[in-house]
Design goal:
- This protein has five helices and no strands.
- By secondary structure, it is mainly alpha-helical.
- Helix 2 runs antiparallel to helix 3, helix 3 runs parallel beside helix 5 and helix 4 crosses helix 5.
- The longest helix has 14 residues.
């Protein structure tokens, strides 16, 4: 996504969701849970947590790693809305 507005919402800067989560949750596990809850309305599974911890460790830059994670979540099929699941307007 090359939309400047979306890019600014994903960056861990300013007063956006990700910046607030990282500022308020210094432990990665808690920050990961909050990002998942706010993005997918669920907690990450144990398997996801293991992969996420490894990604954070590999990247070495907390903000950058969490930006990657948030991008992955909003691009996941779980995040995307299925139009067929919405009630149809009657008219």
């Amino acid at each position: 996504m090359n939309n400047l507005q979306i890019n600014n919402k994903i960056k861990a800067t300013g007063n956006n969701m990700l910046a607030r989560v990282l500022a308020n949750y210094s432990e990665d596990d808690e920050a990961l849970r909050m990002v998942y809850l706010r993005t997918l309305a669920r907690r990450p599974t144990d398997r996801e947590m293991a992969r996420l911890r490894e990604h954070i460790r590999t990247v070495g830059n907390r903000a950058e790693a969490f930006e990657d994670i948030l991008w992955a979540l909003i691009n996941s099929t779980e995040y995307q809305m299925n139009d067929n699941s919405l009630p149809q307007a009657r008219g």
